[in-house]
Amino acid sequence: MFRLLRPDRRTLINSAIEAVLIVFSVLVALAANRWRDQRVSEHRLQITVQHIRIELENNQAILRAVIPYHEEEVRRIGQFLAQPDLTQKIKGRSLYDLRHQLIPHGYWNPPVTPGVLSDAAWRSAVADDTVTLMPVQLLNQLTAYYSFQNIAVERPLENLQQKFLIPQYFDPKATVLMLRMAQGWFSTMADEEKSVLQEAGTTLKALPPSSKAGTPAKSTSRHE
To answer: What is the pTM of this model?
Structure first.
């Protein structure tokens, strides 16, 4: 009776082998799942980085187009203010009256404006948590750049309408003051745009090399 209930050595060995095979299969399956998940995450990150790369390059193109215009306005207004008969030229005229003479193409050179600098790729990466896949150093660089882009270029636009575009009638001294304010605004914008352009270049260098696999086609900017 005891012998009937006692498994023989061969049965024990077979059972042990089966157990080892089961454990091995489970481990292989888990490793395969981890590898597959890692590949999917890497692919997601590559695509996101490439979208950010394209966004930064497009933003650079916009900045390169608008900076010379702002610098030219600094020169144009400065040249006007340096005229010896300035008092006569601005007599009875406000900045609004002089705007078409001194700022013929508006405060930007249409259709290129700093307001169209994009952060859509970055916001998308934050929304879908792709940023959690980024190395800490890259994440910090991108966070710093996009924050700086928004602060440096977009914030000065908020009060532009109230400061310069409302038609008012000024005495000569007030008109000169407003012209100097406009010149200062153009100068500030040009300096800020140059800083953003430089930071965009630095951030592009921080991005990992682009991969041909899964690389989206570069979009054509409407402003180029």
So the answer is: 0.74
